[in-house]
Amino acid sequence: MIKVSVVIMAAFWVFSLSSNAADDELPYHEQIVVNLKENNTVIPEVLSVHPTTSMYNREAIIPPQCYTKTEGEHNPCYVCHQNNVPGRENTMNDGDIQLAYSFSEVGLTNHWKNLFEDRSERVAAISDKAILQWIAEDNYSELPDRLEKADFQGWIPDLKNLQHGTKAFDGEGFALDGSHWVAFNYKPMPSTFWPTNGSTDDVMIRLADIYRTNKEGKYFRDIYQANLAILEANIKGFSSITTPAIDEKVVGKDLNADGQLTEITQITDVSHWVGAAEAYFIDTHLYPKDTEFLHTVRYIDVDEKGNVGISTRMKEVRYMRKWQAYDKGSMSRYYQLEQFEKELGHLPGYTRLGHMGLDNGTGWSIQGFIEGKNGQLRASTHEENFFCMGCHNSIGSTVDKTFSFARKVDGEKGWGYINLRGMPDAPTMGETTGEIATYLERVGGGGEFRSNPEMFSRWFKADGSLNKEKIAQAADVYELITPSPERALTLNKAYRVIVKDQDFIYGRDATVTPPPNVYDKVDNETSPTLPGELFFPWDIRLDWRGN
Amino acid sequence: MKLNIRSVLVGASAMVISPLLLAGTDTFFTPLTQSTAVATPNHINELNSPWQTPAGISQTKLLSLSDVEANADQSTVRVPGLGSGASMFDMISFDPRGKHLFIPHETANGAGVTRHNLRTGHTEVLFSGDATGVRGVKSSWTDTDWGAFDPSTYTPNGTLLLGEEWSGLGRLMEVTNPQASADKIKVRELTGVPNVSHEGLLFSKKDPATLYFVDEYNSGSIYKIKFTNPYDYSEGGKVWVLVVDGFDGNPAEYYNSAANINTVRTGKASWVRLEDAETDPFRDGISSSPDNPDTFGGRPAADEVNGTPFGRPEDIEVGTLANGREVLYFTATSERTVYSVEMKGKKNAIVRVFASDADTAKNEGFLPTTAEMNSPDNLAQDALGNIYIIEDAPNGSEVGGDIWFARDTDNDGVAESIDHFMSIQVDGAEATGMIFNPKNPTQFVVAVQHPDSTNLDNVPDGHGDAVWSFDLENVVPPLCDEKYAYGHRDYNYSGTKGKTCTKAKDFKFIKKLKQAARR
Prior knowledge:
The structure holds 2 protein chains of 2 kinds.
Chain A: H1 2-16, H2 21-24, H3 28-38, H4 120-124, H5 128-136, H6 143-149, E1 182-183, E2 200-206, H7 221-236, E3 241-247, H8 248-251, E4 263-267, E5 292-302, E6 308-322, H9 328-343, E7 351-352, E8 358-359, E9 364-371, E10 377-379, H10 382-386, H11 388-391, H12 435-443, H13 453-459, H14 468-473, H15 477-481, H16 485-501
Antiparallel strand pairs in A: 1-2, 2-5, 3-4, 5-6, 6-9, 7-8, 8-9, 9-10
Chain B: H1 2-22, H2 44-48, E1 51-52, E2 58-64, H3 65-69, E3 93-94, E4 100-104, E5 112-117, E6 123-128, E7 149-154, E8 160-164, E9 172-175, E10 187-189, E11 198-203, E12 210-215, E13 222-227, E14 237-244, E15 267-274, H4 298-304, E16 313-320, E17 326-332, E18 337-344, E19 348-356, E20 361-362, E21 376-381, E22 387-391, E23 402-407, E24 417-424, E25 430-436, E26 443-449, E27 466-471, E28 490-493, E29 496-499, H5 509-518
Parallel strand pairs in B: 20-24
Antiparallel strand pairs in B: 1-24, 2-27, 3-4, 4-5, 5-6, 7-8, 8-9, 9-10, 11-12, 12-13, 13-14, 14-15, 15-19, 16-17, 17-18, 18-19, 21-22, 22-23, 23-24, 25-26, 26-27, 28-29
């Protein structure tokens, strides 16, 4: 009897997603896309099959960038694929992928077919005025209310006025709404997150209540800032760190070891938390339990003067929370198991956490919100969330599966909303040349696909060599990696077309015409690889000391 | 001289009798044709019937984390903060009376063992660590904590052995009084056994002083130790490692390294003793990361005598071949292969591929299956000597891992077919610890390990790790039409006349199973 009920329920769900019988015959993933195009619910409906069964791309963790043609000389892979740095929790040890392709059978085919779509006509049909109007709209403020009404059980955005960017925060990055989110200023990861390649973004962090309060449970900003600074030092492996002014009397601890309790801007004892969390576990390169990150990905705004910045409209709202805090030993076991699984030819799988998204396997729950067909944000589908696992799980360069915090401007100067203006091109830790300049040279273009003509014309000479002299004269990161207003609008339009199609499972890169340097299929044995001398060890951290 | 003659005679008679007693049988069930789909945590399948089985096999829950924790008088291991890996039921042991199950916990730290009384249903922790150990940090492991107890085995002395696998120090622990009340349990480390990444652990059937064990590593070796005092394992003994005579690769490298991938790793082999200072298997490295080649002393010691590397040896079984010789089966998970090692006396052996995903037929003579044997991990053996292969994956996938019946009817150490026996349908879980009841040969147990429902942060009323009991008593013999039959034996089963798909009179399987157990 129960079985019969289940079958009836299953049939109901499948039917409920389809407007006509013909849709039922579509592959599951196409049924989902059809549903997304036809409905505007904030929580997408799901098919009655196992979410993995409904996936189009079982290797969605391999991002489009991994299909770039390196042609024996261009290496954009080094910023993701690195060997273990002693002491860190990341033991993915995938440095070898810099030099050769190593895909599963499924991964050999580039499933990101949106890359190969020519959107020229559709992009041309969108006026500049229309796209500027589109990106100026606020699609964030209404999201919490819509989610609550839909009885969404996951995280509901709780940072007010984030659509306005820097206006939502004070000078030290603290959210003005009292939500305890703190914005920080970081250098965007090369190159997907360079505005010139399609998007702007911002990132905020929030520590659990215990890291914001004293032992009596009372909130103190000084305690919170001290713990944020201690965290930064530990994530970066520093023994001391600067901070906005902190009153040691409030914290109740001599943090700069001068024998007095005074107002300080430097913490030299980063081996323990302060306040209520003083006795809590701490280790380098690990976030404490219940750390949250909020990351919004946006269009590229262009103002009347041609300045480029973040848009009000959000492409995506990404949220991750460290819901399980594992030690480094458990992390290394996870990587070992992942290697075993890969070796056996098993495709990746992750624990589903309902509306909290997916568990990346090392303690982070990850859930995204993305634009629905009308531009309203909606919860991401299983496969759309699955895509996040590639970068937030399966690469060797991250620190505790994250990017931006380790790339934050050091200490006091780095607390505040992201601002590329005035930000120097700091070198990667251990190197001396600016990170962006180095990347451009190693890649031979302005991004993984080497298909950004504007970057090429700006920073390369006619013979294809890097124009180092010109780069050296660039005022800041803003000048180096932001697009012209024309390019910005074009990229915005290209992404707008993808939103209409709701087929993010085929790729979400803002391309107008197919980039030429991308494989549609890779052969692990015969596709050109890179010689050993083009292997680059790289540290995700930046050396801000010279600036 | 007389003694020698007597030995020969005994050996000869054993060779005649053994095939009758321990021949592998034909397939006694209708194999599955696909791996089952897994559902959501706490789905009715997980609560009522976590495995898809052939017709007639019953499954009954013995215990689950949630059941035990709901009872104030009972206990099991749950290490805080480890999510779905908080309990990790692993390779279960029975005592010879079939009264108790011993469930080792493969947790990252805080590992221990739970005892379950099959007669009363009572479950309790015998001992567990204090969860202060950190994987890879040697100094954090003291005599108050243990990591990743994967194997357990009940010894001829009535004690219980537990081995650390991927966490801890690769130690072998002995519970010297596993039948005692929990507050009187005594545990000691067997320092005379080399540290390795322990997985398979079983005593020889012919020599109760000899223990076989393996190193679960991608350059893992096969070992045996003959205890000096078979009544006190703490005195240690002589340690050997298996060396395939024709192997000419690099024993320190992974089985699939360039140096090893095309080398010979089957055929004639020898047990080589680790006996001098250079091959000291007790010189553990400074690290305690199981990923390092020198962490466990047994590992480099094996390399120095050219110990043949296999791809992650995991569980083992010890049986008897048709020729009367002892055989050691071991899985090599990374190779998707199960090997058999025929013992030719104390020092010589023959290594064969017993079953592999690539080269062994599946469901031969039956409807084919779409499943792959892509992760052979545990092994089990019934009273007739049939081997069952349990996969440890696909864990996070939408289809469950499988259990295979290895059909070796001529009992020569090479299976003719692997037949799809069972498939797990629990979200995020793998099957572990399959073992037959020594007192009731139609029954066996299997654990559901690390299902998503163990993580109470995700599934607040989660069912959790569990142990299920299965009974073959009413298994329906394979019925099939002419197209797939190759045996064409008529039989009567429950008043119905039909044709079996097999060569043997497999409808008598249960009877033969019981007879074998009585012997």
